[in-house]
Amino acid sequence: MGYSIAEAARTSGLSIDTLRYYERINLLDPPARDAAGRRSYSDEDLAWLSFLTRLRTTGMPIRRMREYASLRRRGIASAGRRKAILVEQRAAVADRIAELQACLEVLDYKIANYEHLEQNIPAVQHEASA
């Protein structure tokens, strides 16, 4: 099935400008064209866009994404390097998750502390007025 650029944007959650940009910087292969010359994105294109979006969400730089996309075009011969890129990115994500987990623990501690204070406010105020 072919998707117009507007449909591809809506489905992928990316803007039309981003789709054109990804094509211009070679992250996305130029899509097929319909009889009128308009871009026609395939299900495979949309799956690739979904993967690119995930990579961006992990914080992967565009430069590294472009390297990955270039390697992808080379096929199976580049599988080892593509895997290495993903392993490196996974490590960076795991480090970020650990950092965020530590932040979450601090927030939980502070929230629990404030809840404890709030529970004891009426008793403290009552004692002060007595």
Give the strand content.
under 5%
Which parts are unreliable, with pLDDT below 50 for 5 consecutive residues or more?
Answer: none
| Terminal residue distance | 78 Å
Sheet with most strands: 2 strands, antiparallel
Protein name: MerR family transcriptional regulator
GO molecular function: DNA binding; DNA-binding transcription factor activity
InterPro entries: DNA-bd_dom_put_sf, MerR-type_HTH_dom, MerR_fam
Keywords: DNA-binding
Description of the molecule:
The chain has about 130 residues and is mainly alpha-helical. It folds into 2 domains: about 1-75, Multidrug-efflux Transporter Regulator, Chain: A, Domain 2 (Orthogonal Bundle); about 80-130. The chain contains 5 helices and 2 strands, in the order ααββααα. β1 and β2 (about 40) form a beta hairpin. The protein is elongated, with a radius of gyration of 24 Å. The chain starts with a helix and ends with a helix. The mean pLDDT is about 95.
How are the SSEs placed, and which strands pair?
Blueprint: H1 5-12, H2 16-24, E1 32-33, E2 39-40, H3 43-57, H4 62-73, H5 79-129
Helix pairs in contact: 4-5
GO molecular function: DNA binding; DNA-binding transcription factor activity
Organism: Prauserella muralis
Protein name: MerR family transcriptional regulator
Q: Key terms for this structure?
A:
DNA binding, 2 domains, 130 residues, single chain, 5 helices, MerR_fam, two-stranded antiparallel sheet, 2 strands, Multidrug-efflux Transporter Regulator, Chain: A, Domain 2, MerR family transcriptional regulator, 73% helix, 3% strand, DNA-binding transcription factor activity, mainly alpha
